[in-house]
Design goal:
The chain is mainly beta. The protein is built from one helix and ten strands.
Length: 109
């Protein structure tokens, strides 16, 4: 079973498998005026090539309107620049998308 921890201060997404560290990725988070929400969520939907600024994959969270997704602006990764979503490099979000099922817990701190 997978779980995801997103550390906003470090701008890192850490993927755990069976409670043990598995992978880590640098991410972009929400800008100060539209911060990434803190709390415990789940992945509730997934989409391939969702279009627009969402890059190659979308993993929707159980808080309406927020998700983990790719980007058409790779230079934004590592910055506080989004409207609250978590952005990843497309190659990384494709890897994550292929690993985690709907229902995966996501904790944002």
């Amino acid at each position: 079973m997978y779980s995801i921890l997103i550390n906003r201060a470090a701008r890192k997404l850490t993927l755990y498998k069976d409670g043990k560290f598995f992978r880590q990725y640098t991410v972009a988070i929400g800008k100060p005026s539209t911060p990434t929400p803190v709390g415990n969520f789940r992945i509730i939907n997934k989409a391939v090539n969702p279009g627009g600024p969402f890059g190659a994959r979308w993993l929707g969270l159980s808080i309406r309107g927020y998700g983990i997704h790719g980007t058409n602006n790779p230079s934004s990764i590592g910055k506080a620049i989004s409207n609250g979503c978590i952005r990843m490099h497309n190659r990384n979000v494709i890897e994550l998308f292929n690993l985690v099922p709907i229902g995966t817990p996501v904790r944002i701190v």
